[in-house]
Amino acid sequence: MTKSELIASLSTKQPQLEYRDVELAVKELIEHMSAALAAGERIEVRGFGSFSLHYRPPRVGRNPKTGDTVRVPDKHVPHFKPGKELKERVNL
Amino acid sequence: MALTKADLAESLFNELGLNKREAKEFVELFFEKIREALERGETVKLSGFGNFGLRNKNPRPGRNPKTGEEIPISARRVVTFRASHKLKKRVEMNAGSRGKS
């Protein structure tokens, strides 16, 4: 399912909203969640899951093509932990 | 402070003028549609944010870490999330003033 398929599916479920508004609402939700993570904030949605940032310490890596060592600075990466309901529903 | 469904509904109310009930319902439905797709075994791709995928896990022996008792872990299907390049970049660029999570 892509973002546009999600928008279409929500639109049939919310006939009182214009298609354009559903599109804007989905974009707003995704933008809001991205901005929260970018600001270092967690996202917690009961029954769905939580998003947080995981810290990756700096390390010395290697360019696989040339073999040169490169210093990789520390960083934070987004992480998702599925919630109880999602886990149970997805499990066969 | 973590971002919650209430915060997301609030932004639909403030930014898009959905009424409070509509906004709450919309946020609920947004996550429900994603759950339903995953439940059907479909990957969910939200461009600019990330992809939710599914992985089948084989059964393996497990252990209760507290008692040391052996318990088998059954085969299962789990959800995985891969953040998009765009989201990773945004998170990295805002480094510095960041709380641990």
Structural summary, described in words:
- Chain B: This protein is one of the two subunits of integration host factor, a specific DNA-binding protein that functions in genetic recombination as well as in transcriptional and translational control.
- Chain B: This is Integration host factor subunit alpha.
- Chain B: Belongs to the bacterial histone-like protein family.
- Chain B: Keywords: DNA recombination, DNA-binding, Transcription, Transcription regulation, Translation regulation.
- Chain B: InterPro entries: Hist_DNA-bd, Histone-like_DNA-bd_CS, IHF-like_DNA-bd_dom_sf, IHF_alpha.
- The complex is a heterodimer of chains A (92) and B (101).
- By secondary structure, chain A is α+β, with helices and mostly antiparallel strands.
- Chain A has two domains: 1-41, Irregular (HU Protein, Chain A); 42-91, Irregular (HU Protein, Chain A).
- Chain A has helices spanning 3-13, 19-38, 84-90; strands spanning 43-45, 49-56, 59-62, 69-72, 75-82.
- The longest helix of chain A is centred in the first third of the chain and has 20 residues, at 19-38.
- With 101 residues, chain B is of the alpha+beta class.
- Chain B has a domain at 1-41: HU Protein, Chain A, CATH 4.10.520.
- Helix content of chain B is 41%, strand content 27%.
- Chain B has three helices and five strands; from the N terminus they run ααβββββα.
- Chain B has a three-stranded antiparallel beta sheet.
- The longest helix of chain B is centred in the N-terminal third of the chain and has 20 residues, at 20-39.
- Chain B is elongated, with a radius of gyration of 19 Å.
- Chain B starts with a helix and ends in an 8-residue tail after the last helix.
- Chains A and B meet through helix 1, helix 2, strand 1, strand 2 and strand 5 of A and helix 1, helix 2, strand 1, strand 2 and strand 5 of B.
